[in-house]
Amino acid sequence: MTNPAEIGTWDPVWDWIFRSKSWGKYPPEHIIRFIARCYFNAEDRSKVRLLEIGCGPGANLWFIAREGFSASGIDGSSVAIDRAKERLAAEGLTADLRVGDYAQLPWPDSSFDGIIENVSLYSNPATAIDGALNEAHRTLRPGGRFLSSFFSDRTWGYGEGNMIERDGFVNLREGPLAGAGFCLFLDRERVPEMFHAFSELAVERVSWTLDNEQHLVEQLVITCRKEAF
To answer: Which of 89, 110, 112, 207 has the most beta carbons within 10 angstroms of its beta carbon?
Structure first.
């Protein structure tokens, strides 16, 4: 198992996951609600620049581009980016897609009106998450909004592996994240400290059960914004 502290914000296990699984075709409801609430009333959607960090095969970017916004995305997996490009091209949609480390974003300061990430940061140690959040803050325009979601520490699989930092595990033996490399399950009490650079912090919970209600899967959906100057 690769030590996640040595690989920036991306573990090569995700190339294998993206090759072997076909999930991730449509955006989750909390992403749709966030974009609709914050940006649907824009006079010219093409001038609204939205970035997804850890975009995977492009489910959320497909929705963003389809709704007429200027879409950008970055992921460490070239497999995922290739699939995102293919999907968008098949429908005549475009996006600025990059393979890279989202703790070192290749865009200038204040580039985006909004940034999203959906259960991607959780696969990194806390130090890498901090770097990625700093980069999100840097590339947001003043007043820009950010949405992030993490699996909570109540999610099935927590504690079922080797803990290598607070709430961070490798080699999970069970649960939906088994076999997915490093996983940091977020304790609600850590949110204010983790997102300290942002204002208007709000947290909601999204949960579902598996195996006839035997197991819980829960996400913390965090919304915030960069201070307007």
So the answer is: 112
CA 81 to chain centre: 14
Distance of alpha carbon 45 from alpha carbon 48, whole angstroms: 5
- Tokens representing residue 4 in the block: 């996640």
Closest CA to 172 of 181, 164, 161: 161
Q: Are 218 and 205 in contact (CB under 8 A)?
A: yes
Task: List, for residues 53-107, the tens digit of each pLDDT value.
Answer: 999 999 999 999 999 999 999 999 999 999 999 999 999 999 999 999 999 999 9
Whether the CB-CB separation of 51 and 113 falls below 8 Å is answered with no
Parallel, antiparallel, or unpaired for β 168-170 and 162-165?
antiparallel
Q: Print burial letters for 154-167: b (CB count within 10 Å at least 16), e (below 16).
A: ebbbbeebeebeeb
Region class of 199: left (phi > 0), else alpha (psi between -120 and 50), else beta = beta
223 vs 226: CA distance, rounded Å = 11
- Interatomic CA distance for residues 151 and 153, integer angstroms: 7
CA triple 1-132-169, angle to 5 deg: 30
Tell me the whole-structure pTM to 2 decimals: 0.90
